[in-house]
Amino acid sequence: MERQKFKEYVATKGLKLTKKRDDILDEILTTEGHFDPEELFIRMKTKGSKVSRASVYRTIPLLLECGLIEEVERIDKHAHYEKVLGKQHHDHMICMKCGKVIEFFSPTLEMLQSELCQKESFTGIRHNLEILGYCGRCSK
């Protein structure tokens, strides 16, 4: 399902689903939790992949645009991602000291966002909420 969606998307961009792009997609689909492009590249190289760092960095935006992954946080000026399919929507609390990420879902916040969009005649498609602060251990 994901592979077909990605194949169709890259075709709309005049591109092909190359072996390297396919390998990157496979690695992301087997990844649990958040990842950054550099970690993904290193993990693939460790497994013997011939993928280049440039291929990883060029494929990430395609996967974002296609809706298979989303950017979930920015720490130290670089982005982290997670796969979208098979996961329920959630938001993040990020510790600015140790980098701990706490995923949460709040029906109250979701309802408030809907009300705000309705009040402004705005059609919300998606959102990304990050609360930056300090986890219990770091705030002591």
Overview of the molecule:
This protein is of the alpha+beta class. The protein folds into two domains: 2-83, Arc Repressor Mutant, subunit A; 91-133, Dna Ligase, domain 1. The chain has helices spanning 2-12, 19-29, 37-46, 53-66, 107-119, and strands spanning 69-75, 78-83, 91-95, 101-104, 130-133. The strands form two sheets. The protein has a three-stranded mixed sheet, with no helix packed on it. A hairpin with a 5-residue loop joins strand 3 (91-95) and strand 4 (101-104).
Quick structural summary:
With 140 residues, this protein is of the alpha+beta class. The chain has helices at 2-12, 19-29, 37-46, 53-66, 107-119, and strands at 69-75, 78-83, 91-95, 101-104, 130-133.
Characteristic terms for this protein:
140 residues; alpha+beta; Arc Repressor Mutant, subunit A; Dna Ligase, domain 1; 2 domains; 5 strands; flat
Q: Total number of helical segments? A: 5
In whole angstroms, how far apart are the ends? 46 Å
The low-pLDDT segments are none
CATH architecture of the largest domain: Orthogonal Bundle
Return the average pLDDT rounded to an integer.
87
The tally of strands reads 5
Beta-strand proportion: 15-25%
Shape field? flat
Write the CATH fold name of the largest domain: Arc Repressor Mutant, subunit A
H/E series, N to C?
HHHHEEEEHE
Gyration radius, to the nearest Å?
Answer: 17 Å
Largest sheet: 3 strands, mixed
Q: Identify the CATH class of the largest domain.
A: Mainly Alpha
CATH level-4 homologous superfamily of the largest domain: Winged helix-like DNA-binding domain superfamily/Winged helix DNA-binding domain
Total domain count: 2
Report helical residue fraction. 40-55%
Structural class estimated from helices and strands = alpha+beta
Spatial strand arrangement across the major sheet: 4-3-5
